[in-house]
Amino acid sequence: MKKLLIFLIIPLLNFGQIRYSKPNYSDVPLAQNHKNVLDIYTWYDVLGKNTLIFTAKEGCGDGYDYCDLRAYHYTGNGNLLWDIKDYAPNNTDITLKKTEITDLDEDGIAEISILYTLGYSGGGVKLIMHEKGKKYAIRGERWNRRGDDCAYSYNMYGKNSFESAKSSFKSYARGLFLKEISTLYGRNCDHYED
């Protein structure tokens, strides 16, 4: 009975704020089922124990680090809730830049935001957000404008649209995305929403 009570209380302690850890590979049995593990996150929310595992295939040719990026979100002792897979274009590279685990709507269920670049020097930037089995995406592309390579266009309302997302999700995701573009170039870049 005490174990059941503790199991029910732990997610409530984190309500409104998700605390996560980045354990060692050897401490996460689920990670043993994956090759080329890049990063691991664990946290508790109302779904119970959560594990997020990132993997990437190395060696895209000509010295690039990774050809693909994959993320697997497990709940409990190994139930796959969702996964994503993306591939680098034209034998370039893909780079995981940032992962944020939040509870913006304070419903006790974490939102996971994954930001990564595709292609040479961040030619493409993507942000994928998951919450309650729903996937949202921002896709951006760098383009030259009169010799300035610090100009981006992006789309939040295409495939996996933020159109039906809560306003807190939209503003958080847009801010995270635009901050990464500025970080890539060390300055604020012009950006245009499609």
Task: Walk me through what this model shows.
The chain contains 2 helices and 11 strands. Strands 6-7-8-9-10-11 form a 6-stranded mixed β-sheet, covered by helices on one side. It has a 5-stranded antiparallel β-sheet with strand order 1-2-3-4-5. The protein has one domain (2-193). The model is unreliable at 4-16 (pLDDT under 50). The longest helix has 19 residues, at 167-185. It is 16% helix and 44% strand. It is globular. With 194 residues, it is an alpha+beta fold.
Q: Could you report the average pLDDT, rounded to the nearest whole number?
A: 82
Category from helices, strands and their pairing = alpha+beta
Number of alpha- plus pi-helical segments: 2
Q: Please state roughly what percent of the residues sit in beta strands, choosing from under 5%, 5-15%, 15-25%, 25-35%, 35-45% or over 45%.
A: 35-45%
Principal-axes geometry comes out as globular
Number of E-type strands? 11
Largest sheet: 6 strands, mixed
Strand order of the largest sheet: 6-7-8-9-10-11
Q: Could you estimate the helical fraction of the residues in percent?
A: 10-25%
Q: Rounded to an integer, what's the Rg over CA atoms?
A: 18 Å
Query: How do the helices and strands follow one another from N- to C-terminus?
Result: HEEEEEEEEEEHE
Distance between the termini: 55 Å
